[in-house]
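Researcher: We're teaching a course module on how sequence relates to structure. For the next exercise, students receive a sequence and then see the predicted structure as tokens, so they can try to spot secondary structure elements on their own. Here is the exercise chain.
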Amino acid sequence: GMKQKLVDMIAKQNLAIPSHVLESMTAGHMEKTFERASKMGVNPQALFSQLMGKPQLLSKLQQPKIMAAFMDISTNPGNAHKYAGDRETMEVVEEIRIALGGAAAAAAPVPPPPPPLQQPPAE
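Model: And here is the predicted structure for the students to work with:
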């Protein structure tokens, strides 16, 4: 089915995903992630095609610290503050949120815009 296709697609990308992350990306975990995504009005297929169109983003996401941060934040959005000091990680997470927004927009009526990020005051 669709999920198997996605899993195959992920496998074919030969992403250098660390094994502990792969273990958490088991079918059961993917089910839950997809389920959660669907509840949020995100179409996992749409999200995936958004990510596929952003190879730089995908390659950054392969960095273990970024992947771990992303998994952490996607499991518990309140944990985002733990990474606030890590600009690279936050930029990737933000880009994925935008991609998620694009995937959500493809699957749902227009959601309210996310709150603006706290921009540091201009010099």
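Model: If you want an answer key for the exercise: Residues 87-107 form the longest helix (21 residues). The CA atoms of residues 85 and 113 lie 24 Å apart.
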